[in-house]
Amino acid sequence: MIVVAGEALIDLVPQDMPQDVPRDSAPAGLPALAPRLGGGPYNTAVALGRLGSPVAFCSRISADAFGDALVDGLRAAGVDVSYVQRGAEPTTLAVASIGADGSAGYSFYVEGTADRLFAAPERLPDDVGAVSFGTCSLVLEPGASAYEELLRREAARGVFTALDPNIRAGLIPDADAYRARFKSWLPSVALLKLSEEDASWLGGTPREWLASGPGAVVITRGGKGLTVFTRDGGEWSVPGEPVDVVDTIGAGDTVNAALLHGLSARDALSVESLSGLGADSWCEVLRFAARAAAVTVSRAGAEPPYAKELG
Questions:
Q1: What pTM did the predictor assign?
Q2: What is the pLDDT of residue 22?
Q3: E strand spans, the chain
C-alpha cells in the first residue's frame, strides 16, 4: 500500500457564467467560481486510486459539507480513508486564477482550517510500501511539524518516502528558513520530485540534493517533459505529450502518482532500486507519467486519468 499524507482542500476555479444566469445577479468584473476537490496530496491519492494502486490517505479533513465531499471523492477513487481524521474546523480554500497558457496561480484561505491540526498517527501498517508528502501541509503549522515527524519516522524504519515540495511562495513567510528546512528533509527522502520553477526557487541542483539522501530526483518541465537524475550518475529525459492544455491544475500531482505507481509495478520502492532501474525502465516510467499528466491538463481542474485511459 502507498500512503499519501497531506492536505485536502477546495479549489475555487474560474468558469464561464451560464447563459441562463442574469448578468446583473453578480457584481460586474467578478468571475464565477466553481468548487473542485483538490490539494496536492489529495490529488495524488485520487490519481493513485484511479490508476489501480492500493492507496490510503492520511490527513485531517473538515466535517463540513466540503469535507464530506472530499471524503466521498476519495472513496469513489478507491482510496482507503481509515487514516483520515475529521475536525469541526472549516475546509481550506484555494482560489485559482488561470493564465492564457493554462498555468494556474493560487491564493489561499487557511486560517483555522482543519488540515492545519493534523496529528501524526501512532503507527502506519506494516504493509505500507511508500509514503508521499508535499505542498501546503509541510508549510502550515502546527500540522507541518506533525507531517515532518511522520516523514522522518517512516524513513527511519525503512519505508520508501517521496517528496514534492510544490512551492506556494505566498504561504511561506520566511523563504530562507523554508529552504533550510527543505534541506533538512532530504536525508529522509527516497524520491524527490519537483518542477523547474520549484527547483529555481529552492536553489541548488539535482546532484547536490542527491548527495544529501534521495536515490533519484525527477524534474518536471511542463510541456517539455521530464528528466530523472539518479544517485549513481544516471540522467534520462523524455519529451512531454502533445496536448491542448485547458489548465495545469493537478498536473504535478498526477506525475507524483504515476511515478509511484510505475515504480511500485517494478518493485522499485527503495533507494537502491531507484539507481538500479537503468535507462529503459526509467524512460518507461517517465513516459507513463507524461501521458498521465497530459490527460489531466486536457480537462478542467484536477481530474487525473483512470488506468483504462492510458492503455
A1: 0.90
A2: 47
A3: 2-5, 9-15, 32-38, 55-62, 80-87, 93-98, 104-109, 130-134, 160-164, 191-195, 216-220, 226-230, 235-238
- pLDDT 10s digits, 60-110: 999 999 999 999 999 999 999 999 999 999 999 988 776 666 666 677 888
| Contact indicator for 69, 44 with CB cutoff of 8 Å | no
pLDDT at 135: 85
List of residues 6+ apart from 150 with CB closer than 8 A: 5, 58, 120, 121, 131, 133
Going from the C-alpha of 37 to that of each of 190, 228, 260, 276, the distances in angstroms are: 28, 30, 21, 37
Encoded amino acid at 74, one letter:
L
The gap between the terminal CA atoms of the chain, to the nearest Å, is: 23
Nearest to 261, CA basis, from 297, 288, 294, 237: 288
**Exposure pattern of 231-260 as b/e (b: 16+ CB <10 Å)?**
beebebebebbeeebebbbbbbbbbbbbbb
Give pLDDT < 50 ranges for the chain: 17-24
